[in-house]
Prior knowledge:
The chain is mainly alpha-helical. The chain is built from five helices and two strands; from the N terminus they run ββααααα. Strands 1-2 form a two-stranded antiparallel ribbon. A hairpin with a 4-residue loop joins β1 and β2.
Amino acid sequence: xxxxxxxxxxxxxxxxxxxxxxxxxxxxxxxxxxxxxxxxxxxxxxxxxxxxxxxxxxxxxxxxxxxxxxxxxxxxxxxxxxxxxxxxxxxxxxxxxxxxxxxxxxxxxxxxxxxxxxxxxxxxxxxxxxxxxxxxxxxxxxxxxxxxxxxxxxxxxxxxxxxxxxxxxxxxxxxxxxxxxxxxxxxxxxxxxxxxxxxxxxxxxxxxxxxxxxxxxxxxxxxxxxxxxxxxxxxxxxxxxxxxxxxxxxxxxxxxxxxxxxxxxxxxxxxxxxxxxxxxxxxxxxxxxxxxxxxx
Length: 296
């Protein structure tokens, strides 16, 4: 029975064992309600401990989450700042190089693309600077060529410098044309109008220029040669031949003047001849009269 209520029987756990040396029987027991109550008390204490642990864990977790959030926010801010700095460190120089490239494309070689950098962007900027320097040199060469200076030295940047090698070939072509024209000019000044230039040594308009000079000399030589032939015959007392070529401009004037001079000379000689005949006739008549008077 329950100690508090003898009339109520409740479960009890008992243990009995005989102690033979003394002949005693030792026994003990415990009520199940006491065990349940003790277990409930321990369970309550454990629940309190567990609740406290959970609360403490939750608080620590919340603090850790908050701390991690702020750390993550700081890392994101630092990352964004680093990205902005890196982007500005890349985009601004690239924008400068882009402006230089557009200026070069439009023919403006005054932009400064130099950068004090040792990275790939600095190498790219140095390449643009070298390109501008080469183009400026080519511009100076073209300017001197336009002023007639064909002795300038073209600096070829590399074996692949197509523009530089093209300018060298252009200067060589101009020199050949200039040399041929000077040769024709010197020959003409010395009275040699038969010298001509080989047009096959030139190409394109250069060949047309040389061919035009040859044709000009031909146009000058033909009337001069014909006038020379006609005057040579006149010197041999042949005043019948005349210049018959079809000429224009001053060459036509030369033809008319030569033919007019020969015609005037022919007429003058004809008049002289007639005067001589008349003088001879008058002389004969005077001689006959003189003889008649002498006989009478």
